[in-house]
Design brief:
- By secondary structure, this protein is α+β, with helices and mostly antiparallel strands.
- It contains 18 helices and 18 strands.
- Helix 2 runs antiparallel to helix 5 and helix 3 runs antiparallel to helix 4.
- The relative contact order is 0.05.
Length: 593
Amino acid sequence: MATFRVIGRVLGDRRGVILVSLAALTATLTASFFTPANVVGTTMLLPWIALFAFEAGAALGLAVATASFVVFLFSPALDGVDITPAFVIGRFASFALIAGGVGIAGARLRRSEGRSRRLVEGLPLVMYTEDERGLTYISPQIEPLLGYSAEEWLSQPGLWRQVLHPDDRDRVLAGYRQAVDARGDLECTYRLVRPDSSAVWVRDSSAYVTDGSRSYRQGFIVDVTEQKRSEAEAERNATLMRGLIDGTVDGIALTDRTGGIAIVNRPMLTFAEELGLPRGGLMHERLLAASHLIVDRERFEQRMRELAAAPDAASADEFELRDSERVFQGFTKPVLGSDGTYLGRVWTLREVTEVRNVNRIKDALVATVSHELRTPLTSIIGYLELLGSGEPLSAEDARFVEIVRRNAARLQRMVEELLFLSRVDVGGLELDVDEVDVVELVRAALGSADPAAAAKRITLEYSGPGTLSTKADADRLGQVFDNLISNAIKFTPERGSVNVSLGAETGAIVASVADNGVGIPQAEQPRLFERFFRTTATRDVPGTGLGLTIVRAIVEAHGGTIECTSSADGTTFTFTLPVAVGAVAPPAVAATG
């Protein structure tokens, strides 16, 4: 090797060495024609001996090379060979050929070993080899990982066992012995303890290798501490999430894209067991198996088919069990990815039996009290009218009677509203449907509201066709316009305006009542149609909180829908009646108060 390095420095590169070797080979072949046959003998081994000597050191190699060349050159003289110039050239060429060829091969091997070592030592892992005596190699990455140098690992055979974490030692050593005895692979994750007593999680992978007569184990160690921390954090979060969903009263399930159950909480499992749902199958299929328990079985089955056909649609339903009278609310909502891709669906099952029972008791109490109040109120109002028709009252007495009459009338309206809602709850709203002109109903409602509007100098406006006929309950539909217009007037400041508009769409009437009064807070808008709910913006205005509930009941009884939009500039209630209409559209009419 040293000889090659000397030649390499003289000639500059490997190409020069190859040329020298070829020249030496040519010289050897040429000299062979002028040299006796007995020249080539055991002395040809001397160049090899010199090359191996250089591996032990430069000085020894130089001495052995000099001695070998002298022997190699002059030993044939002992056999009577003449030392001619051709003989000297042949011997020198042979020596140079052997040295050059072996040097090139050795240099290539060293470069390959150097590249391999740099590659191994540049990887983010620790490479090692071991045989029956212990470690034979370990890469320097071990020191920044565990705090012990590669020299310490190689010089202390028992160091690995010493730094094994006590909680992992028995498990790891048992697995290691099994792999060694079976001459098989080892794959193990465990902790090693650094000199500062901190623990490092590693993954140790090794394989048994047989290379001719030599057998050894070769493996690598990877730091997985951060991965273990992430896994522990993920497990902790999963435990918290499981505790969260199991701690809810509602049954919750998450299904995948096909409807298979991915996650389910304990309350849902309890409901499934109580309802006798199958343990296998898609979510909507399991629920369908309980359809014979539902009071409105046809509607329930239809909903399940809809959910199966439209997995990305949300739903909200309420169903009652036939025998137990238990009542459940079911909600579903799609789960979408950040790119809008459908991932699955959340199913929520909530039992509202107790709430419904409380509501029934409350409704029964309200209905009873309302009925009981109706008769005495009628009597009070009747006698108040008699007082006004008899002898003239003093101004003060007349004022007192008017106060009593006004409050009695208000109480009577409240009783009538409560009785109306009680009838809706018990048997639904019965409608007396006939051909009506909706425009006439609007004009009548505007005329009734004109005094209240005039008192606040509010402008009442109507925009729409001159006639608009449909089949509806005239009294109930008139009640809708009365309530919406009176509400708009109450919540509109002086000199404001209220606009009623009508329009016809395909198979539907669209009506709206808009004002420029105080707006309704966004957070309170979803509760506007609840019984007795009053927005914070109108707490100072008298009212029962039942008017909008009655309006929605009447609109929905006609098969329509109602919605509200509100902002700081005013509020608009819009409802539709999905019925056949006929419309004629002369100029719009406006009424001003």
